[in-house]
UniProtKB/TrEMBL annotation:
Catalyzes the phosphorylation of pantothenate (Pan), the first step in CoA biosynthesis. One of its GO terms (biological process) is coenzyme A biosynthetic process. Substrate binds at Y86, G93, P94, D95, R96, T172. It comes from Mucilaginibacter gilvus. PANTHER family: TYPE III PANTOTHENATE KINASE. GO terms for molecular function: ATP binding; pantothenate kinase activity. This is Type III pantothenate kinase.
Length: 247
């Protein structure tokens, strides 16, 4: 089965084509258009379409797709494969839920901690019995830099410095970098430490645009052997959901 899988996030839209579980192509856009969609449809014989969006309004290209296909709109009611114990499932972000499904699909019968690095940083957990209870949300990497500038009168906008490797800064720019990047590093390790206190066997699955950067932050930590980088985890979770839908 060939599936078109669409993940509309806060910043980027990611569109992928799968043949069963094989990822054939993935593209990401600030704002896709009909031409980009028709190009993919002309290249592959798409049988099913699933879409996940954090936005309420639909773009013209989405309406075009709905004219051609029965588009499955991902939500908690079609999240098969996991036992969702979230108290308010309708308010659970579809990207978080899809990532949990993706983790459980890729690493079944395992305790999986899922860390998403994007506009926000999300922490979620699905156990070996496919039980999901919830997680945590905090500001993302770029959001923290922007907030320091926006909410102060003197602090400048600073770009992410992937080569920064110091415990402190010796000027304003490096102090901001230290605060943001070391802060995230300590947050990551703190959440992971709290998680593993109750787990004997576990995976730490990183995904999202900042997953490689997070992997770098954690590469010298004691958690490194347990880290798995799955940048397309949400797309893979959506694909797993559409494969099981109406089976």
């Amino acid at each position: 089965m060939t599936s078109l899988v669409i993940d509309i996030g806060n910043t980027l839209t990611k569109i992928a084509v799968f043949s069963d579980n094989d990822l054939l192509q993935v593209q990401q856009y600030q704002q896709p258009g009909a031409d980009e969609i028709n190009s993919l449809l002309g290249k592959y014989r798409v049988e099913k379409v699933i879409s996940s969006s954090v936005k309420k309004e639909k773009e013209p290209w989405q309406l075009m797709l709905e004219d051609k296909f029965t588009v499955v709109h991902f939500n908690s009611s079609i999240a098969s494969g996991i036992n969702n114990h979230y108290k308010t499932p309708k308010t659970l972000g579809p990207d978080r839920l899809a990532a949990v499904i993706g983790a459980n699909h890729l690493y079944p019968q395992a305790n999986n901690m899922i860390i998403g690095g994007g506009t926000t940083i999300t922490y979620d957990y699905v156990d070996a019995g496919a039980n999901y209870f919830g997680g945590s949300i905090s500001p993302g990497l770029k959001m923290r830099y922007k907030a320091l500038n926006y909410y102060t009168g003197a602090l400048p906008i600073i770009e992410v410095d992937e080569d920064f490797n110091s415990a402190y800064g010796d000027d304003t720019a490096s102090a901001i970098t230290s605060g943001v990047q070391n802060g995230i590093k300590h947050e990551l390790t703190g959440f992971i430490e709290a998680y593993i206190k109750t787990q004997k066997a576990y995976n730490i699955i990183l995904h999202g645009g900042d997953s490689i950067f997070f992997d770098t932050l954690l590469k010298n930590s004691i958690f490194a052997p347990y880290i798995k980088n799955e940048p397309y985890l949400v797309l893979k979770g959506l694909n797993a959901a559409i494969q099981k839908h109406n089976d």
